[in-house]
Amino acid sequence: MTDRVVLAYSGGLDTSVAIGWIGEATGAEVIAVAVDVGQGGEDLETVRQRALDCGAVEAYVADAREEFATEYCMPALKTNALYMDAYPLVSAVSRPVIVKHLVKAAKQFNATTVAHGCTGKGNDQVRFEVGIQTLGPDLKCIAPVRDLALTREKAITYAENNDLPIVTTKSNPFSIDQNVWGRAVETGFLEDIWNRPTKDVYDYTDDPTFPPAVDEVTITFDQGVPVAIDGESVTPLEAIEIMNRRAGAQGIGRIDVVEDRLVGIKSREIYEAPGAMALIAAHKELENVTIEREQARFKKTVDQRWTELVYDGQWFSPLKKSLDVFVEDTQKMVNGEVRMDLHGGRATVTGRRSNTSLYDFNLATYDEGDSFDQSYARGFIELFGMSSKVASSRDQRLGL
C-alpha cells in the first residue's frame, strides 16, 4: 500500500505546490486538510477543489470556527493571555485545533506522516510537530519548505511548469496568518524595525486617527466567558466576531512588537486583534471586581506561565492541563457586566457590576455609612512592619 501524507492545506502557493512536491520527493499520496478557524478569504469548497486539482487524492475540510472560539480562544481569554504583555496568541492558539484535525484525518485516511508549510525559523514548526507527536505518537512529520528545500522561487516555477490552478505572479510583500482571534503580519519592509507600518499592513482595523463617534458597549460574562453583548445573547464565536467589527472600526487592537521567538531570534511582528484585546480588557476588569486579592496575584503568575506554554507549542502538555484546572476554578465568580467606551484605538472600561462582586461599597466609602473600623489600622501596621523594623534595628546597631 502506498504511503499517505496528510498536509495542512491553506490553498496558497506553497501548500498547493507542496502536494506534488511531496509526492515526487517521497512517492506518497497526499491528503489535503483545510481547517476553518475564521480566517475568511476564499470559500473552503473552492480551497478543497484546488487541492484536488493540484493532485491531492483526498481533500478534507473542517469547519472548526465554533470549536476554536469555545475551546481555544475562551481559555486564552480566561488567562488574559498576552505574550510579552502584548501578543494575544493569535497564531499560537490556533495551531492546536489545526493539529487535532490533522491527526484525526491521518487516522481516518491511514496516513503515516503529517506535513505542514512552516519554515525552519519560526515558532509554528514547533507548535505543529510537538502537537502532532503528542496526539499521534506514531506519526512522522515533514515540512516541505524546511525539509524538502521548497523555496518560493521553486514553488512559482513548479506551479507554472505544471499548470497548477493558482495565481503565481502576484507578489505579496508580507507573510500573513489570520483567524477570528486576530491577524499576524510579518516580513517584507517590516523586517527593518525602524520602518513605520503602512496602511496596507492592516485589514481588521480602521485608522484610529480619525475615529467615528464613541461606541459604548456592555459585555456580560458568565464564569469568565462573554455570553451577551448589549443584552443580546451570543456564543463565544459571535462575541469575538461582533467585537472584531465594533472595536476594529475604532482602530483598537493594533500591536507592533519585537518578539522573542522560541527558536531564539527576535522578530518584528504586527498584530491586529480588536475583538481579543477589547474582550481581554473587559475580562481583566471583571476579575479585579470578583477575584480575591491573593488568588488574583497568584493567577497573574499562572496566566504568564500558561501563555508561555501555549506560545511554545505546549498546549497538550501535562503542566498546561494542570494550570487549566486552576484557571477554571478562578473563573467561577467572574460573572457580571462590564461597560466600555470604544474610541480612537482605546477600549476604556467605564462601569462594572456583578452579583458575585467582592467590592463592598460600605467598606470602600469615605462618606456616611462607612463600616470600616479604622481603629484596626494601627495594630495592623505595627504587625505588618514588624520584621522590617527588627531587621533595620539590627543593621543600625551594626552600623550597616
TrEMBL record:
Protein name from the UniProt record: Argininosuccinate synthase
An MF annotation (GO) of this entry: argininosuccinate synthase activity
Compartments, record wording: Cytoplasm
This protein's UniProt keywords: Amino-acid biosynthesis, Arginine biosynthesis, ATP-binding, Cytoplasm, Ligase, Nucleotide-binding
Chemical reaction(s) catalysed: L-citrulline + L-aspartate + ATP = 2-(N(omega)-L-arginino)succinate + AMP + diphosphate + H(+)
Domain Arginosuccinate synthase C-terminal residues, every copy: 174-390
Pathway where this protein functions: Amino-acid biosynthesis; L-arginine biosynthesis; L-arginine from L-ornithine and carbamoyl phosphate: step 2/3
One cellular component (GO) term of this entry: cytoplasm
Binding site for L-citrulline: Y87, N123, R127, S175, E259, Y271
Biological processes annotated in GO: argininosuccinate metabolic process; L-arginine biosynthetic process; urea cycle
UniProt-annotated binding residues for L-aspartate: T119, N123, D124
E.C. designation(s): 6.3.4.5
Pfam families: Arginosuc_syn_C, Arginosuc_synth
Main location, first listed in the record: cytoplasm
Similarity section: Belongs to the argininosuccinate synthase family. Type 1 subfamily.
Oligomer status and interactors: Homotetramer.
Entry binding sites for ATP: A8, Y9, S10, G11, G12, L13, D14, T15, S16, G117
Arginosuccinate synthase-like N-terminal domain: residues covered: 4-165
Gene3D superfamilies cross-referenced by the UniProt entry: Argininosuccinate synthetase, chain A, domain 2, HUPs, Single helix bin
UniProt KW Plastid keyword: no
Gene that produces this protein: argG
